[in-house]
Write a structure and sequence with these properties.
BirA Bifunctional Protein, domain 2; CHP02453; 5-stranded antiparallel β-sheet; TIGR02453 family protein; alpha+beta; 43% helix
Length: 226
């Protein structure tokens, strides 16, 4: 198994960042953060990209698809200047702007998680996806069963309490639960060891393989299949 430079010290550094979330500490440890967290994380994204280059729909990521540590606190009650985790995407185009369908990795001091799917789509795109769930219920059923069989579950991220506008007649539809969702995301928690020993790469590849039909289903619904 290939390792990428994430070590126990990397997690200790995240703990220290959380305890000293200020500009003075950050600038004193900026190089250390780069060496122990940012660069190794980018290497992981690139390793996954290489594994997926011959996939049904390749996804790729790099340092350019990582999220910066700086927080925008202009309108936030929480004025901490830095995030206390490392996050990054893999997308069909390899661009962070291409966020219709994503594979996401999140490194935190407790290990973190990986996720795949559609996150907070605009209402127009969501409704296009909902229409396809209804029109092609059999295919969507096959997709969700495949994901379940692989051992994953859909995350309940801010689901609507009632059916979305225009979909009340489908309250008893077999996919009513998914029709109420504003994000269709499959996620898996990861241990610290998965990052340290490099098995995070294998887990991301497995998650992509298990969810790619879902992501293609959604991209086709909004006219972005090719």
């Amino acid at each position: 198994m290939t390792t990428f430079g994430i070590t126990k010290k990397s997690f200790q550094l995240l703990d220290k960042l959380a305890a000293n979330n200020n500009r003075e500490w950050y600038h004193e440890h900026k190089e250390e953060l780069r060496e122990q967290l940012i660069d190794p994380f980018a290497d992981i994204l690139e390793a996954v990209s290489g594994k997926l280059k011959n996939a049904k729909r390749p996804f790729s990521g790099s340092k350019q698809t990582m999220f910066r540590l700086y927080r925008d606190v202009r309108f936030a009650k929480d004025k901490r200047p830095y995030k206390e985790h490392i996050g990054g995407l893999l997308t069909p185009s390899g661009s962070k702007k291409d966020d219709a369908a994503i594979l996401y990795a999140h490194l935190a001091n407790n290990g973190g998680f990986i996720a795949a799917g559609f996150y907070r789509w605009e209402t127009k795109a969501l409704n296009q996806l909902r229409e396809r769930m209804i029109e092609d219920a059999k295919t969507f059923r096959t997709i969700t069963r495949k994901i379940s069989k692989a051992g994953y579950e859909f995350s309940e991220i801010e689901p609507l309490k009632s059916m979305p506008r225009g979909y009340a007649p489908y309250a008893d539809h077999e996919h009513a639960r998914f029709l109420r969702m504003r994000s269709l995301v499959v996620s898996q928690n990861l241990s610290k060891e998965a990052w340290i020993d490099g098995t995070v790469v294998k887990e991301l590849v497995k998650l992509h393989r298990s969810t790619i039909d879902l992501m293609l289903f959604g991209l086709e619904a909004i006219g972005q299949r090719s």
